[in-house]
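notes to self, project folder thing:

trying the whole complex as one job this time. last attempt i did each chain seperately and stitching them together was a nightmare. two parts in total, labels are on each line so i dont mix them up again. if this works i'll redo the older ones the same way
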Amino acid sequence: MSQYVPHTEAETRAMLAELGLQSTDALFSDVPDSVRLHAPVAIAPGMSQMETVQAMQKLAEQNTSYRLTLRGAGCYDHFIPPLVKLITSKEEFVTAYTPYQAEMSQGILQSIFEYQTMICELTGMDVSNAGVYDGATAAAESAVMCRERKRSVTLVSACAHPDTIAVMRTYCYGTGDELRIIPEKNGRTDAEAFRAMLGDDVAGVYIQQPNFYGMLEDVDVLFADAKAAGVKCILGANPMTLAVLPSGAEVGADIMCGDVQPFGLPMAFGGPSAGYMATTAAMQRKLPGRIVGQTTDAQGRRAFVLTLQAREQHIRREKASSNICSNEAHCALTASVYATYLGRHGLQAVADQCLSKAHAFAEQLCAIPGVSLRHEGAFFHEFVTNLPVAAEKVQAALEAEGVLSGLPLAGGMLWCVTEKAGDAQLAHVAELVKEACAK
Amino acid sequence: MSEAVLLSYEKSVPGRYSEVIPRLDSPSWQLPQKWRRQKPPALPELSEIDVDRHYTELAHRAYGVNCGFYPLGSCTMKYNPAINEAAAALPGFVGAHPLAPAHAVQGCRAVMEELSADLCQITGMDAFNLQPAAGAHGELLGMLCVKAYHESRGDSGRVRMLVPDSAHGTNPASAAMAGFTVVNVPSRADGCVDLDALEALMGNDVAGMMMTNPNTLGLFEKDICKISRMVHASGGLMYYDGANLNAILGEARPGDMGFDVTHVNLHKTFSTPHGGGGPGSGPVGVKQLLAPFLPVVTSAGETGKLQMKAFHGNFGILVRALTYLRALGGDHLRAVSEHAVLNANYLMKRLKEVGFTPAKDVACMHEFVLTLEEIHDRYGVSALDVAKALIDYGIHPPTMYFPMIVHEALMFEPTETETRETLDHVADILARVMEDLKANPEAMHTAPHTAVIGRPYEVKAARTPVLRWKPET
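result (full assembly):
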């Protein structure tokens, strides 16, 4: 009869007849005539599936395809093993709903339990939820977890991702809580200014590691100061870095959060991905979102269920810890498949490659007259260089060769190098930058 | 199949590894000691075939729309077209960096502009923002827009948000996150908003009202225009929860009913898959008066006052929704709602014939609610028991115990993509369940009997939470 509606006209008529109705129009007799539409909605007429795919292909082809991406800034171009796509395309994973009926959803529930285990291993924290919308909302939800009656202010480093700060500010606007920005100093959180901001109205502090400029923060020092002032510590981190960088537990975090996009999810113009959130056992009942727990059935068989639901909106309504109900389950699954397949050695390999290639590339860039690292200190796979010419000029020169450059920042560029960049490619890019800077 | 599946962590064998990424024997660059991890993460060590088979086993223990009937009320579990997945997987889309220069992502921009324009037409709104990642996320943005609007007019005393007692739980939770005080609006005996009670709640402290129409009983709120006028007259705004939009697609528009702001669920009405609990997408549409408050994301990453998540939203889901709309077209939108409502009424009639009782014995829209109160009183069999018994017959149970204003509720939403044979089959199964529960009510309490597990002890899970795997030593 039409796209995706299986009824033949005869079937529709027969079903209407069983209901004692003459036409489909009669199904809408409760809708006042004043709001009934009497003409089709003014969107393009339908097409065959073949034509539709071709039309979408045309749109996709309007995007520039790059051979190499040296831009990160919160969205990273890593190699995605074909097995990850193959597994996550299984329709039972794609078309299922939230696992409300545990007996029919053990596969989904177990995959989330394994995801939670992975996040706990990476972060060193005791408890993980099943995921939230993305890293930025995870930070905003983490800030909520820290608040108490007399402490409601959240501190956030100016070196956090600008989108993270903006989302935290939006959530604070809703609840009427204050967000204060810790200033930046030489590409890192200003530790002295931070200490001066630790008042007794401060609930929590959010530090991103590595920060937006790629720099490694002295989080252990910052967190020690925060703890001494009774302030809860939130560590935001790209999970890929956790193969080599200290875990949240090792630096004294109360909450860890971030975005799992680097784990097997394509850039896809920035979404979808999932945000992870992990915390200490002491704070587990403040954790928002879905959580899967292990229990047994009457026969003693291991069983997984959605648990601690007393925190959630469908039970608590306006008193819930958050309004969130989806956990970006399919993205969390993808991240878990990626980490399970790569395993501890594979993840270590990716992190080592990123570290080594980024530092080698930084060295090549800094050999170019007028190009230098903007900030002193350690970094992971992102760094900012000063440029002697407008960043847009470098961007255009690289684009002509099929390379997406680093992100232009005032007077410089934020670069990101992953395992996908070949050594010869990077050497060639350094040459292109040199030429662009010379002209 | 009923054998337990070990966790990937339990299957791990030290030293197993697939050479996906070349390993560096001696890393050419080492971080300073203070930034080196002490205890490496103990992730599984498995071969490729271990991983492949592990997830195949898990998939066999999951159930999706592709497996069979999935009538979760309020969730709109319609078929997820294959071409949506093909479009979202196009290299031009998956390879796009969100902060690429504007000229390099014209295709992405076009997808977002076309989808926004179509959603404006479908809902009768003037502007759309595609950033929210889910329905509840859209509700929060909508509430924040309402707050910002009143503030911009210096109208700071509007602190109360009216929410019907039949509303989805996210409505009051979202209003609370936006800083509003939630005020419950009671329903009349017929299941619709009590206008007298509403009138009594009006005042200059009312910021607005959240409604879904048809409501969660599957009934169209006939007085909607009157309700909108009442709320507007007292200076409040009307919020439309788009969870039930599938019922009126192409037939009526929230914008024409007096709503000022709405979210739509692309993962319900517009056929994008639910993924086991997301990712979804909850775009927000507004009338002109609220347009200035929507998030604005420019290519440089500069944003307006409100920003809901990083970057542009769940773009991959937007591609799927646009693909659906292009295949469907304006000319076939109406067939969706017509057959969604036809299927719901047909199934409700069949279930009545086998002895079940609708909560409201009138024609429904796209979903209907049964009350098993009488069965519970007479046989001691609950809505939960019946839901679990359905699992033994191989179909997914409907939504249970919602809306809260109905006792022993089971809420069915068959959607338009189910055939008449499926609905007849489901009615036959429920007839058998009716016989079972009369013949042997005791057995119902322990259903399901054929699933991979029996009913899990949920109280135990919550009282002594085990939320991750740990090695036994």
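what i see at first glance: Chain B touches chain A through 200 residues (CB under 8 Å).
need to look closer tmrw
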